[in-house]
Amino acid sequence: MALHLAYLPNEILDSIFTYFQPREADITQARLIRCNNALRRRFEPRLYSQEESCDRIMRVACERGLIETIKLAVDTFGASPSLVTIWNGPEPFKVLTLHLAAKKMQPGAFALLLKLGARVDIEIDKKFIQSQMPCIVKALQVEHARMLHQFFISGTAAQVPNIPIANNCLVQAIINRALPETVRLLLDHGANPSHVQAGGMRLSALSAAAMTGAKETFKLLLEMGADVNAKKCKLRASSLFEVPIIGAAHAMAEFQTTEMLQLCLEYGASIDTNITLAHESSGSPILISPLTAYLDAVIDWRAVHKLSPFDAVSLILNQVHQMAENPTSFLNMDLNTDCFQIGKALESLLGKWGVGHFVIDEFFAVVWLLAENAGAVDLRSILKTMLHEPIATYYNDGLSRWLVILDVLLKNRNTAERSTVLYNLILDCANSGFTYEDESAEVLIDHLIQAGADINLREHGDESSRTVLHAVCDIIDEETKDLEQSSRWHFVELYQPDIDKRGGLLQTIVRKGGDPKLQSNGKDALDRLRRTSHEFTETRIYVSHLTGYLNCADRLMDDLSDFVEVDGLFVVA
Predict the structure, then answer these.
(1) CA 326 to CA 381: how far, in whole Å?
(2) Is the backbone of residue 9 left (phi > 0), alpha (psi -120 to 50) or beta?
(3) Cα of 441 vs its chain's centroid, Å
């Protein structure tokens, strides 16, 4: 129903017409129109003369874009083009008409109100403008360019010079793919080309352009003084997307094109930009680079990509190598220091997707490429993750592909480094509470030994240091002491599978060449277990599924005594 009563509701007209004969319809319609006009002339003055009724009409007209109603209310009956009183609730309150039209996305009503002289600097109280203007700005942010043009060209924005309206609208306008002309309008009216949106992703204007693929807007912002390297950015977690090249790398996965990344590099962006983040679980700092930002944005490795992840990563790595060879590089660091986070990207990728994705050709190709180019990789961290992956995860050729990657990561390491990797791997098996997967651990241990790792490596290189066999025995000994302390206060139960797990690891070490006769500080592996045996004898810890009280350490020593030395190796007797 039109609120200016220019015509009766369609439902009433339809009801009236059903009672007339077809030949009477034309005559009756003319009479009804005359009647309606007469009623309108009599009712409208009464309707609009009441303040509350007029406000309700103006509110609905602004929200629904009823142009003729707004004209009638303002031009004929003197309604305010700027303010509407909302009568809902216990106390009425004022609202800007521009806010109502903008909030409901009514550009026609918005333009008419501006033409009729609507203002935003109404003096009601000091807090009124501060509370209303953000609402208008928020509405303008999500609307197309038309209302923004109207708002600034009419001079309305200039009525509140203390509120940075152009700045507040800039980033969201770019996100909504505003035309370059609209962006220029905002810049001409005081928007900062390096402005960063408060809250949310904290996007900078350049990052917003990069993430939406707005090339012309990106160039315009640079021409107006935006910093492509965001040098004033504090480079921390909250400012991740303040850096344009990070946004461009993220968008490369979404839009399947390298255009924005290439544009960033063309204008001097640094491919070695790193942003410090705190790891969610460990709290240790990690760095986000364009490479890690891109890989994190890939959500489906099985999908058909217009731009394959392998090609995208190759592009980034080519830029990395070019910068490493350039003596004027931003950080001026050697590639082997992994300042470009290639190793971190590899660790993050494997940690996120796991070994099950090795069967996907694209994923395997990217991992191989990263492994070939990584200057430094925390191999211990990667292997620790793989220890808890069941062999069943490596279905089809996943296991063989993982071992290929492991060989690539080991190829630049000498025997001592490979032996250290093996030492840490076995130590992590024990330190994890023996919760590792037996088959996975054995495969990794075998492969490292075949690659030349020495299972009898001394911890610190000297003869008095521990081997990994000593270290595992010491861990079992510490567990025994903890159990002994606990048993003084409450009942302690040690399950047979736990004993078997510990004995199995000791057997594996000896079977793979670990020498139980080697001594550390005058004690060999059996001496350490005998000390553990004494603790258990004194404590009398119950072991389920066995008859009576058994001695865990004696059981483990029995495991070791099953081996005999043959040609320098220990095999099952």
Answers:
(1) 31
(2) beta
(3) 32
Question: Which uninterrupted H or E stretch holds 115?
Answer: helix 107-115
DSSP 455: T
Task: Say which amino acid occupies 257.
Answer: T
Chain-centre distance for alpha carbon 297:
8
Radius of gyration (C-alpha) of the chain in whole angstroms: 38
Helix (H) or strand (E) holding 51: helix 51-64
Residue 27 has a CB neighbour count (10 Å cut-off) of: 10
Element (H, E) at 94: strand 93-96
List the one residue out of 335, 341, 363, 338 whose CA is nearest residue 293: 341
Nearest to residue 376, comparing CAs of 411, 412, 336?
Answer: 336
β-strand partners of 569? 566
CA of 318: how far to CAs of 131, 271, 322, 340, 491, in Å? 51, 10, 6, 12, 62
pTM equals 0.71
By the 8 A CB rule, do 370 and 377 touch? no
Report the distance separating Cα 485 and Cα 42, nearest Å: 97
| DSSP code for 76 | I
List all residues 6 or more positions away from 570 whose beta carbon is below 8 Å from its beta carbon.
510, 511, 513, 514, 515, 516, 563, 564
Q: What is the residue-level pLDDT of the chain in tens, covering all 573 positions?
A: 344 444 445 555 565 556 555 555 555 666 667 666 665 666 566 656 677 778 888 999 999 999 998 998 898 888 899 999 888 777 888 888 998 988 888 889 999 999 999 988 776 555 666 566 666 776 666 555 678 788 888 888 888 777 788 888 888 888 888 889 889 988 998 889 988 887 767 888 999 999 999 999 999 999 999 988 877 665 554 567 788 998 899 899 989 999 999 999 999 888 877 776 654 444 555 677 889 889 999 999 988 889 999 999 999 988 877 765 554 333 333 334 444 478 888 888 988 888 788 888 999 999 999 999 887 788 888 888 778 777 666 666 778 888 899 999 998 889 999 999 999 999 988 887 667 777 888 888 999 999 999 999 998 888 888 999 888 888 887 777 776 666 666 655 566 666 677 778 888 888 888 888 888 888 887 777 766 555 555 444 444 333 323 345 555 566 666 655 555 554 555
Q: 267-270 — which CB contacts under 8 Å span 24+ positions? A: 267/222, 267/228, 268/228, 268/229, 269/228, 269/229, 269/244, 269/245, 270/229, 270/245, 270/323, 270/330
